[in-house]
Design a protein that fits this description.
This protein has 22 helices and 22 strands. The protein is of the alpha/beta class and 594 residues long. It has 3 domains: 156 residues, Beta-Lactamase, CATH 3.30.450.20; 161 residues, Alpha-Beta Plaits, CATH 3.30.70; 215 residues, EAL domain (TIM Barrel), CATH 3.20.20. The strands form 4 sheets. An 8-stranded mixed β-barrel has the order 14-15-17-18-19-20-21-22, surrounded by 4 helices. The longest helix has 23 residues. It is elongated, with a radius of gyration of 40 Å. 32% of the residues are buried.
């Protein structure tokens, strides 16, 4: 479609009706055509047509209007400037110069019709038309003729432009949205390819925003987003582009040098501008953010790929606590994680996982008082896949809910099976880990009830282990859940104690029965006095709060003697046994002193 800018000029109804025109110079056949009378009915008929039309022919190889309807005249009067017609040489009345080549080319060709768009004027005040040329064939006329029709599309074009503007803007902040940001990135990629102008994409994700929404409501959450947007704008340089991609996710497009240090510095600037708490009514809310940075590279040919690279870096930033730069191997790792997620989902659906059981030993008597159930995955092609690899994938994808419910059912069923094999309930309990993500996304209380009911195991023989991160995310909500679990007579243990960020106030408020001392403190005790001091402090705290203690990672007899001397209650580790399959764990239990 070709576009032309034009001014349409009104003329008399017929070229031949103006006595000032030198009609004696026209070819005889054309003169005869002009002299042919046109009835009032014919003119009235074409005047009733809703679109502007005109009959155009070639005169001395130049387009000239023979006739046009009232709509054509009204269109000319509304949207055009007038000029004086030189009757001595201008027979192209009604057609502006930019449109002439198009019509002349059409009349000199052999097309039956041609359509294109035309703009009259520039900028916001310009008018837009759909132009159509339709050839007239047959008859006695020796000159090419066509019908010119003009449809005013100005309102439609302006409506589309307004709609597009709305579609490319975030309604809350007025910032460009994801689609607009992708367009900006595509434009920057063209400049990079043509001129080598380097740029980077920063992805900014607000932490704890969902909790703010839950705590103060969506209206206050909107106000928070607007405030964050303003602060981020204040941290931009001239030429930088800020967009809101999703609820609490922003992106920045900025031109940089080839050295990524400039992009990292910009990321830190974004974090710094959010460091001051934001006031919402009577509340002051501290909002941190994770920032991922992706530099443009020759191998990237799509804006979404660049944004995805920044997302991968941003996920690492959430774990590290500082801005992260995308590295070339990150996408490979991400694809592997997605592949692992697909395979894990199938493994859960097909019941291809199993549990291993590590004994819990009472240090004062040496007897087995329980087992910790640990998920294991033997891949049919890849072999054993470590929980260190598949548990984070399960948490990130949400599969941890299905995996956690399966572990609860499998652990309690195993304990019930051991009871049947022994002929009576065994004096042992089963410990099952519950992820912080499962506490957030699942009804853990109902899952525990279902597992106990299905297996027939008493609640007192089940221990739920959770990490400190469970408590930090939502202390009040987790407290309610833990009290409900405790109401089922289920024991609650805090796993990996000392490695997280929980307040001692939580220990006082929450119904926690056991503190498990992380192996990172236990293992170096024999040669690290600081580790001994930390373990002694944890044991003293547990004793003061009436809690039992379990030491993880015990691998020598000397460690056992040290832990007994410090007053530790329970231990587990390779010194006693590695995690065992169900049959071997049962045999181990039967071989130990009762």
């Amino acid at each position: 479609m070709r576009a032309a800018k034009t001014h349409i000029m009104s003329t008399s109804d017929r070229v031949g009706s103006d006595p000032s025109l030198p009609v004696h110079k026209l070819p005889a056949a054309l003169q005869e055509l002009l002299d042919t009378p046109r009835s009032a009915a014919q003119q009235e008929f074409i005047d009733t047509l809703p679109i502007a039309i005109a009959l155009v022919c070639l005169v001395d190889r130049k387009p000239a209007i023979l006739a046009r309807n009232r709509a054509f005249l009204q269109l000319a009067d509304r949207h055009s400037s007038r000029r004086e017609i030189d009757p001595g040489r201008d027979l192209c009345v009604g057609i502006a110069l930019p449109l002439l080549p198009e019509i002349e080319d059409f009349l000199n060709g052999d097309e039956s019709d041609r359509s294109f768009d035309m703009q009259e004027g520039d900028g916001i005040s310009g008018r837009h038309f759909a132009v159509r040329l339709s050839r007239l064939s047959g008859g006695e006329s020796p000159v090419p003729r066509c019908i010119l029709s003009l449809i005013d599309r100005t309102q439609q074009v302006e409506g589309e432009r307004s709609l597009r503007t709305q579609m490319l803007r975030d309604s809350l902040t007025g910032l460009p949205n994801r689609a607009a940001f992708a367009e900006q990135a595509e434009h920057a990629m063209l400049n990079y390819a043509a001129e080598g102008r380097q740029f980077a994409v920063l992805l900014i994700d607000l932490t704890r925003f969902s909790r703010v929404n839950e705590g103060v409501g969506s209206l206050a959450g909107d106000e928070l987003i607007i405030t964050v947007a303003r602060r981020l704008v204040s941290a931009l340089r001239a030429g930088d582009v800020l967009a809101r991609l999703a609820g609490d996710e922003f992106a920045v497009l900025l031109g940089v040098a080839d050295d990524p240090s400039e992009a990292i510095a910009a990321a830190r600037r974004m974090q710094a501008c959010l460091a001051t708490p934001i006031r919402l009514g009577d509340l002051e809310i501290k909002i941190d953010c994770a920032v991922g940075v992706a530099m443009m590279a020759p191998a990237i040919d799509d804006a979404e790929d660049l944004i995805r690279n920044a997302q991968i870096a941003m996920k690492r930033a959430k774990q590290s606590g500082h801005a992260e730069l995308y590295q070339a191997g990150d996408s490979v790792t991400a694809r592997q994680r997605f592949s692992l997620e697909t395979e894990l989902r199938r493994a859960i659906e097909r019941d291809q996982l199993h549990l291993a059981f590590q004994p819990l030993i009472e240090l004062s008597t040496g007897r087995v008082i329980g087992f910790e159930a640990l998920a294991r995955w033997d891949h049919p092609e890849k072999g054993a896949i470590s929980p260190v690899d598949f548990i984070p994938v399960a948490e990130e994808s949400g599969l941890i809910v299905a995996l956690g419910r399966w572990a609860l059912r499998a652990a309690t069923r195993t304990l019930a099976e051991w009871d049947r094999r022994a002929g009576a309930p065994l004096p042992v309990h089963m410990a099952v880990n519950v992820s912080a993500v499962q506490f957030q996304r699942d009804d853990v209380v109902s899952a525990i009830k279902a597992a106990l009911t299905e297996s027939g195991i008493a609640g007192s023989r089940l221990k739920i282990e959770l990490t400190e991160s469970c408590i930090v995310t939502d202390p009040d909500g987790i407290a309610r859940v833990l009290r409900a679990i405790h109401g089922l007579d289920v024991t609650i243990a805090m796993d990996d104690f000392g490695t997280g960020y929980s307040s001692l106030t939580y220990l006082q408020r929450l119904p926690i029965d056991v503190l498990k001392i992380d192996r990172s403190f236990v293992a170096p005790m024999l040669h690290d006095r600081d580790s001994v001091a930390i373990v002694r402090a944890i044991l003293g705290l547990a004793s003061a709060l009436g809690m039992a203690t379990t030491a993880e990672g015990v691998e020598s007899e000397a460690l056992i003697e040290t832990l007994i001397g410090l007053g530790c209650d329970i231990a587990q580790g390779y010194y006693f046994a590695r995690p065992l399959p169900s049959d071997e764990a049962f045999a181990y239990l039967r071989s130990r002193p009762a």
